[in-house]
Design goal:
Length: about 280
Amino acid sequence: MKAKLVDVFSAERFGGNGLTIFPEADGLSAGEMQALTREMRQFESIFVSREGEDFAARIFTLDEELDFAGHPLLGLAYHLHEVFGEGERHEWRVRLNRRTIGLTSHRRDGRFTATMAQGRPAFLKTLTRDEAAGVYAALGLDEGGHRNYPAEVVTTGLPYLILPVPGGLEKVAFRVPDLSGLLAAHGARFVYVLDVEGFEGRTWDNAGRVEDVATGSAAGPAAAYLHKHGLTLDRTISISQGRFVGRPSRIEVDLVIEAAELVDVRVRGDVVKVADLAFVA
């Protein structure tokens, strides 16, 4: 079985968020996909199969399958362009478990950029101050975060609790063994701690064991949050992540606004190939 290793949200190898792409996923069971993901020890892996002119994909973390994710799909755009593309720019359709995603790939002057249209964001819940205080405390942020802006659950496919802070991301320290129950009570899957002054974020698995390097599925909701609360007037927002795990990454989000309404968020980033892999049969 062949596989490909790429780094997403970086223009140089060994930066950004690493990803393993398995382009020969036909016939693999969910258990086999999960085992391969754990073998690679990256935050996520993506498994691809061909469906006529389009493609189908399944995404796994070390612990579970996801219906949607960001950097695996941008990394997949690199693979599709490398194998099937002929010009500088291509568009692709990828079917996931619950939706179909549009991707754009662009290669020029040795640089590769991928873009994903995440669609209109949904603002699912605004937490009360007391509700938010429980989440802040669970992360060791006992001062209550940024009191001028609310904690809010936002989704473009995967619901994140956006937890605003005025800097101080280095202060986060998990005080609970698992955030899952606390987040589920508010309709969120994961938390994204967002520095609303420096436009930098952090997120983890819900046990706090693994910190993600760069999270495309959270960048869309984070940018929508910044726009909603008037924290930026720009239609292109740059969010940094990964500093605390030694892999600084840059995520660009383009906001599509029509008649004063945010109708689409498009997450993009650089992708660079690291290796072609072959698994022993």
